[in-house]
Design brief:
The protein is α/β, with parallel strands linked by helices. 24% of the residues lie in helices and 35% in strands. It has five helices and eleven strands. It has helices spanning 2-11, 31-36, 51-60, 98-108, 149-158; strands at residues 20-24, 43-48, 71-73, 83-89, 109-120, 125-130, 141-148, 161-167, 176-178, 181-183, 185-192. The strands form two sheets. Strands 1, 2, 3, 4, 5, 6, 7, 8 and 11 form a nine-stranded mixed beta sheet that branches. It has a two-stranded antiparallel sheet with strand order 9-10.
């Protein structure tokens, strides 16, 4: 999970002792390992709609100092959380509509929002495609979107953030195939204007 390591590096200049971070789409809470190694006295909260993934985290992460109660089963659209930093990795790309989730992330953040998604400098491209890898015995379709960086930045500006695009180190800014389709992985950092 080298993208988690890069995310921790990107966030490091912005994180202060006692800050809180909300990991949106946390799965089993893997990002906790990347940040707990770098930052002491940081409060981590994970949010995910998957009970089965959260159960893994609730079982394993208390061994590393994270209370099980800090992993919450919910969708970001339904959440009224607040944190200093909001982190969302590889989630928005697979949603039918990213605006509501990104807006909620931005509203919830006191300082920064960091996302890693399929982003490019062209108009957004929305696909609903067959996922041949998810379950070979069933024909399942998934959303697979690439977002226009200007559209993401515009939403951030409306809510009081400046933004910058950061090259994903693993893909080197080049398209990378996943489930048979190109993804344009990039980080986008939103920082609240003072």
């Amino acid at each position: 999970m080298d993208c988690h390591s890069q995310a921790a590096e990107i966030l490091s200049p912005y994180i202060r002792r006692g800050d809180s971070i909300l990991d949106v789409g946390c799965g089993s809470g893997y990002f906790f390992h990347s940040i707990s190694k770098r930052f002491s006295k940081l409060t981590y909260w994970g949010l995910d709609p998957s009970k089965s993934l959260l159960q893994i985290g609730k079982k394993e992460l208390p061994k590393y100092g994270l209370p099980a109660s800090h992993l919450i089963c919910a969708r970001m659209e339904d959440c009224e959380a607040e944190a200093d930093h909001v982190f969302c990795i590889n989630v928005l790309t697979y949603l039918e509509n990213f605006q509501k989730v990104l807006e909620r992330c931005l509203i919830s953040a006191r300082k920064t929002v960091l996302i890693r998604e399929s982003i490019w400098a062209k108009p957004s491209k929305y696909l609903y495609v067959m996922d041949e890898y998810l379950d070979r015995n069933k024909r399942l379709r998934v959303h697979l979107n690439t977002y226009d960086q200007r559209e993401l930045s515009s939403l951030g500006r409306e809510l009081g953030f400046r933004s910058k695009l950061i090259v994903d180190q693993r893909s080197g800014g080049k398209p990378e195939k996943s489930i048979g389709y190109p993804h344009h992985w990039s980080f986008m950092m939103f920082q609240r204007k003072k």
